[in-house]
Amino acid sequence: MRSCISAIGTANPKHRIRQSSILQFMVRAFGLDSNNALRLKKIYDHSGIDFRYSVIPDFGEEDFNNNSFFAKNETLEPFPCTQNRLQLYQHAAADIAAEAVSDCLKVMPDGFAGRITHLITVSCTGMHAPGIDIELIEKLELNRTIERTCINFMGCYAAVQGLKLADAFCNGNEHANVMVVCTELCTLHFQKDISPDNITASLLFGDGCAAVLVQSDDSKEKGIRMQRFFSDVSFKGRKDMAWELSSKGFLMTLTGYVPDLIKEDFKCLATKALDAAGLTADDVTHWCIHPG
User: Fold this and answer.
1) Pairwise CA distance, residues 209 & 50, whole Å
2) Those residues with Cβ within 8 angstroms of residue 110's Cβ, 6 or more apart along the chain or in another chain
3) Is the dihedral of CA 123, 126, 128, 132 positive or negative?
4) Which of 119, 158, 242, 284 is most buried (most C-beta within 10 Å)?
5) CB neighbours (10 Å) of residue 112?
6) Residue pair 178/5 in contact by the 8 Å Cβ criterion
7) What is the pLDDT of residues 93-138, one digit of tens each?
8) Facing residues of 120 across strands?
C-alpha cells in the first residue's frame, strides 16, 4: 500500500511587502552609504522576487518611527531578543497554520476536518508548548483523539521528513487521513550583521505556511502518489547551511559555496536514490530540487 497527496493548501501573513521596500529598510538598518546601497540594490534586483510576506509590518515602512516590532530609531536598538521574537511567533503562527489547513480542506466534503486521524506539524523558526498542534485542534475543531507529531529544527528537509512519516502512517492504516502542516516565520529572525550570509538570508526568506493531506493511494482516484523515499547525507556542507540559537534570535548560515556543493554532490546522491527505486535519470520526466 502506498500513499498520495490528495489536497494542498497555503497561507501567508497579511503583510505583503514589495522587495523594493524591503531593500530600503535594509539599507537604513545596515546603515549603508550610497555606494554600498547601490551594491545591495543590484543583488536585490537579481533576486527574482517581487513581494515577500511577513508577520512584521516594519519591513515595508518608510520611517523607523512607524515601527511596531523593532525600536523606533535608525539603529533599531534595543534590538529584539529571542524572547520577543518567539512571543510574536506564538501569537501569529497558529492562525496562519489554521488558514493553510482550511485552504487545504476546501476541496474535501463538509465536516472532513473531524476525520483527520494524524496531525504532523513542522517548523524551525519557533516553538512553544502547548504548541501549534494543540491550537489547531481547538481552532479547527479536530478530533481530540488525533495522533500528534511535531518535527522541529530540521530546516527545509523537515517537510520531506513529514511526508515520509505521513506515508508510514498511511501504510499502517488504510483509513488514515494525515495532515502535514509546515509553518515558517523566517523574517522574525532578521539580524543587522553586515555579512554575506546574513544579507543572503535577509534577501530570500519570507513567512508562510503550507498544508497537505496525505491518504492511502487506494482511497483516492487523483493525487500525487508517493512511491518511495530515500535518505543520504553529504557532510561537506554542514558548515555552509546552518541554523543556530542565540540570545538575539536564530542565526542562519547560508554561504556562497552552497551552489558548488550541490553541483559536486547532486549527481551521486540522485543516482543512489534512483538505483534504490530501480530507475534511471532517463525515466524521470520532471525534477523538483531543493538544496535543503
Assistant:
1) 19
2) none
3) negative
4) 119
5) 15
6) no
7) 999 999 999 999 999 999 999 999 999 999 999 999 999 999 999 9
8) 149, 180
Strands 241-246 and 224-226: unpaired
Q: Is 279 exposed, middle or buried (0-12, 13-18, 19+ CB in 10 A)?
A: middle
155 and 216 in contact (C-beta within 8 Å)?
no
CA angle 213, 215, 220 (to 5 degrees): 105
Cell (9 digits) for 284:
524521470
Residue 203's closest CA among 48, 15, 38, 87? Answer: 48
- Residue 158 amino acid letter: A
Residue 292 contacts by C-beta under 8 Å, 6 or more apart in sequence? 155, 156, 157, 241
Q: What is the pLDDT of residues 257-274, one digit of tens each?
A: 777 877 888 888 889 999
CA dihedral over 135, 136, 139, 141, signed as positive or negative: negative
What is the sign of the dihedral through the CA atoms of 186, 191, 192 and 195?
A: negative
**Helix, strand, coil fractions of the chain, as percent rounded to 5:** 45, 20, 35
* Nearest one of 67, 24, 7 to 202, comparing CA atoms: 24
